[in-house]
UniProtKB/TrEMBL annotation:
It comes from the Bacteria. The chain crosses the membrane at residues 34-58, 64-82. Residues 1-29 are annotated as: Disordered. Keywords: Membrane, Transmembrane, Transmembrane helix. Residues 8-17 have a biased composition (Acidic residues). This is DUF4229 domain-containing protein. The keyword Transmembrane applies. The lineage of its organism: Bacteria, Bacillati, Actinomycetota, Actinomycetes, Sporichthyales. The keyword Zinc does not apply.
Amino acid sequence: MTERDPADDPIEPDPDESSSVSKASDEPAGSKPIAALMAAYAVGRLGIFVILGMIFWAFGFRGLPGLLAAALISIPLSFVVLKAWRVELAKRIEERKVAQLSIKDEFRITDRD
């Protein structure tokens, strides 16, 4: 009997490899989905607010004035502290939108033919 050579077997496509038709929801390799980035940004902003509220509470600035002060200070602070996340999120949303528009254009061109 002859032994089979594995090189003679037909090559099956790897399901992990990207296909020629890309989906608009495909994420770059090794990156978080957009929803996870949005959630992280929201939790980060909330965290800054809570930390400032606790600081004001510890120094005796309690009640509604303390919460309002924490809210007013957390807005510009989160704008500065979370800039990298916000820029990354905006970039990913823009890339996703461009991919969606290119797919729509491909279908429009295909329908005309």
